[in-house]
Amino acid sequence: MSRRLVFCLVLTIAFLSIIGVISSLTPGTPQAKPRIFETEPSKACEYIVKEFYGRVAVFENGKETPLDITDTAIDSLPDFDKQQLKIGVYAANERELKRLLEDYCS
Fold first, then answer.
1. Which is it for the CA torsion 94, 90, 65, 78, positive or negative?
2. Which residue, 81, 47, 51, 39, is CA-closest to 67?
3. Is the torsion defined by CA of 74, 76, 82, 84 positive or negative?
4. Which of 7, 11, 41, 75 is 20 to 30 A off residue 65, Cα-Cα?
5. How far apart are CA 35 and CA 94, in angstroms?
6. C-alpha pair distances (Å), 87 with each of 20, 72, 73
7. Res. 105: pLDDT tops 90
8. Facing residues of 73 across strands?
9. Residue 55 neighbours by CB under 8 Å, 6+ apart
10. Is pLDDT at 18 greater than 90 in this prediction?
11. pLDDT per residue over 61-91, tens digit each?
């Protein structure tokens, strides 16, 4: 092989190595993060979704009697959801409430 060809091969390998190192250091596509809903009460929050006798239930903010008790058992949910529902997940409006119920009850 000629010196010129060897030089080109070495240069190409070095270039590809540098590209590999740079691409391994830069972040790729961001991973999906778990949805974390509001767990702190707010005056703007109308509803609270939380556990009630082992079921997912909906409460009006500040009330102790549930508006609705779903058929979804807390035991059927992942541990993360169980923990959130024990303290309560706050929904600002009916649309957010509906989204929460779809997440927990479907």
1. positive
2. 47
3. negative
4. 75
5. 18
6. 46, 17, 16
7. no
8. 55
9. 69, 70, 71, 72, 73, 74
10. no
11. 888 899 999 999 999 999 999 999 999 999 9
Could you tell me the two tokens for 17?
Answer: 């190595």
What is the separation of C-alpha 72 from the centre of its chain, rounded to a whole number of angstroms? 20
> CA 47 → CA 80, 98, 104, 106, distances in Å?
20, 10, 15, 19
Question: Can you tell me the distance from the alpha carbon of 92 to that of 44, in angstroms, rounded to the nearest whole number?
Answer: 6
Q: At 53, list the tokens.
A: 């006798």
Tokens 């006798």, residue? Answer: 53
Q: Who contacts 105 (Cβ-Cβ below 8 Å, separation ≥6)?
A: 56, 70, 71, 72
Report residue 77 as tokens.
Answer: 């949910």
